[in-house]
Amino acid sequence: MRIKYVLSEVLVGLWRNVTMTIAMIITMAVSLTMLGASGLMYKQVGDMKDLYYKNVEVSIFLKTDVTEQQRTDLDAKLKGDPLVKEVLYVNKDEAYKTFKEMYQDAPDLVNVVKPDLLPESFRLKLVNPEQYKNIYDQYQGTEGVDVIVDQSRLLDKIFNVLTAIQNIALAAAVVMAIAALLLVANTIQVAAYSKRREVAVMKLVGASNWFIQAPFVLEAVVAGLIGSLLGLIALIGAKQLLFSGSLKALEGLLSPIQWSDIFLMFPLMAGVGGLISAATAWVTLRFYLRV
Amino acid sequence: MTKTYPKASRPSLDNVSVSIEKGEFVFFIGPSGSGKSTIIKMLLHEVAPNKGRVVVNGKDVTSMRSWKRPHFRRSIGCVFQDFRLLPNRTAYENVAFALEVIGKTKAVARRVVPEVLELVGLGGKEHRYPHELSGGEQQRVAVARAFVNRPLILLADEPTGNLDPDTSIEIMRLLDRINRTGTTVVMVTHDSNIVNQMRRRVVEIESGRIVRDQARGVYG
């Protein structure tokens, strides 16, 4: 009977103040969507880093007038370097072949460039791609070395942008969460006010505190859970629209977002939504009802 | 015991000591602001004294933790001047509500509530709403609600304050009947008629001090 009583009180409570309930659910949903998006982004950036940095190379281009001796010395030095995982020597012909493939759409350019013009190079894979700086310092002055190019530098820029977007989403989630919190507090106050007579009688006859608080707290939790459900739907919609639609061109660059990742976000969103609502409601009641 | 409210110039209760035996019927009388209601609040563990101790049913409630309060309250029934009934529930539902929110089943309520409504003289009016009942009948519902859980103590804070003299007498007869079942009744009032008619123990308070404590006393 008590469970039934509490549940029916929850429904009545949500319905009595339905405009406020809707406002609460919407802010909660937006906040949780942002939270989910930033969580997905975090996972995504992690995946992409793994993928890209594994294939990233440092290229040491040699001067055109490099001597046989200088090249052999450098080769030996690189192979003995603990920071370097793999060394691949690319001679002029191989460089020309890659060049032709890369610019096959621009035959004029390919015609102008002769194999002699292209520098020989060493392609390095590092044990840890972030130690690029050490490699650079060590080999920049070496005789016969022209320039050292690090692909991960470019990647860092991309990842900085992605991290910035992720932080913006997180910041938006926090701001919306504060708004949602205040709405929950307000809704609970209104609900407690409209049931002040019942609450007074319950306190008087010695109803336990949890029994007095439960309908209010559950009211907030239900709103939080509905909000997180809407958030999940929003994320699914976003994946459908963006990755199957306008962002399709970027498919090669961005690793695809898995459905499983989106569904993994749901427990996080529901948990955060439910817990924050419950805590807010409970604290509000402590102050408002002094139970 | 002494109770001083914050911002008050003098204590609401100043070094008051009173002992009420089990089964007694006691009036607390005195002018408004004399500190009568503070005694009720202390017995309900709503306020705590600054100095001294409050002992109820052999238990020291002075330092009782607030989470124990609900269970403690179940041994005390309460009636007020303004009845405090729920307007959207019938007489039966008002009394049953008090049982159900402390975890009693509907079956228990179905057995006990008609009994207690009969006791307070409301047999046949179970399904009336408070606005369909007279003031005296509403107070009977309130008494039924306070008594349905068979408390050891019944606190009544000016229960006749809103009632005409005849109705007041009827409510007093009811409280007397409840007292005869062994329930201690503590009543705060400034209705001199009633005090004079009942001839029970009277404790008079003035400016926070006990000025008279008399068995079978009269008002003033």
TrEMBL record, chain A:
Q: Which domain of life is it from?
A: Bacteria
Whether Transferase counts among this entry's keywords is no
- Membrane-crossing ranges are 21-42, 168-193, 214-242, 262-285
Endpoints of the signal sequence: none
Q: Which gene encodes it?
A: ftsX
Q: According to Swiss-Prot or TrEMBL, what is its membrane topology?
A: Multi-pass membrane protein
The protein, known as: Cell division protein FtsX
Question: What function is annotated for this protein?
Answer: Part of the ABC transporter FtsEX involved in cellular division.
Q: Quaternary arrangement and interactors, per the entry?
A: Forms a membrane-associated complex with FtsE.
Tell me where in this chain the FtsX extracellular domain is found. 56-146
Q: Which family does it belong to?
A: Belongs to the ABC-4 integral membrane protein family. FtsX subfamily.
Sorted UniProt keywords: Cell cycle, Cell division, Cell membrane, Membrane, Transmembrane, Transmembrane helix
**Record bears the keyword Cell division:** yes
Compartment(s) where it occurs, according to its Swiss-Prot or TrEMBL record: Cell membrane
InterPro entries assigned: ABC3_permease_C, FtsX, FtsX_actino, FtsX_ECD
Domain ABC3 transporter permease C-terminal: start-end pairs = 172-286
Q: Which organism is it from?
A: Micromonospora antibiotica
From TrEMBL, chain B:
- Provide this UniProt record's keywords sorted from A to Z: ATP-binding, Cell cycle, Cell division, Cell membrane, Membrane, Nucleotide-binding
> Mainly resides where?
membrane
| Occurrences of domain ABC transporter (ranges) | 2-219
Q: What is this protein called?
A: Cell division ATP-binding protein FtsE
Which InterPro entries does this UniProt record tie to the protein?
Answer: AAA+_ATPase, ABC_transporter-like_ATP-bd, ABC_transporter-like_CS, ABC_transpr_LolD-like, Cell_div_FtsE, P-loop_NTPase
Q: Which gene does this sequence derive from?
A: ftsE
UniProt subcellular location: Cell membrane
**Recorded GO terms, molecular function?**
ATP binding; ATP hydrolysis activity; transmembrane transporter activity
